[in-house]
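Amino acid chain
________________
===
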Amino acid sequence: MDGVNKTLYIPLYGKSYVSKKGIILKDKKAEEIWEKEQFKLKGRSKSKWLSYYMGIRASVFDEWVQEQMTKYPEAVVIHIGCGMDSRVIRVKTNNHYWYDVDFPEVIAERRKYYNEDEHYKMINGDARKSDWLDKISYNKHAIVVLEGISMYLTNLELKKLISNIGNHFEAVNLLMDCYSLFAAKMSKYKNPIKDVGVTNVYGLDNPELVVGSNVLFKKEHEMTPDKYIEELKGLEKFIFRKLYAGNLSKKLYKLYEFEKSLN
C-alpha cells in the first residue's frame, strides 16, 4: 500500500485501543484485525490521545449514520474511504443496502476480514473519480460518510466528488470531517500521518467552496461531544478536554454536514 492507504492503520489502532479499554467505542472487529495485522506504527500515530480522538470521531459518525438510517429507511449507505472500518457491523445495516468504497488494494485487504451478503457490498473505487457510482444502480437516496478522507483531496476534488454524488442520487445526506487551512499548514511540521509517509494534506475553512448546485451545506457539528470525553478518567479527561476538545482543536478540525433534499 502507498502512504495514503497506510493511514487506515491509524484509526484502526485507535478504535482497537479504546475498545480494549472498554470506553467510547465497542469494536471487536478492530481488535481482531489489529491483533492479526500488527502494522508497525510509531511516534504520534500510536498516541493514546489520538486513539481517544479516533474513537470519539468514529462514535460521532456512527451516531449520525444511525439517526439518518432511522429517518430514511429506504436510503442506501455509502462509506467512501472505508479502510478497515467496521461501521457496517457496529451500526448494522437494518436492511439498508450498504456499500463500502476504497482503493482496490484496500478492498483486497478488507476482504480477508469482511464478507459480502445481500445487503452489504465492497466496491473498488477512487474518491477522485466517479466511475464506482455506476456500480450502485439505486439512485433515490444516499447516506454518505466521508470520514478521514477529505484532507487527502483538494477542494476542487472534493467539490467534484460531492457534485457527482448529487448527480447520481435524487437526495443525499453527507457527513464529512475536515482539516482547517491552518491545520493543513501545521501538518507539515506535526502530524501523525507523517509516520506512515504522507506529507500532502489539504484544509477547508468554508464548506460553501465544495458545494454545487445540487448538494448544499447544512450545518457544522461538534467533533468531540462532552458525553464521550466524560468516559475518560481523572487527569486524562482534563488534558483531553483542554488540548483536544478546546478552542485550538476547534480551529484545527471541522465536521460538516451537507444535504440534497428530494425534489
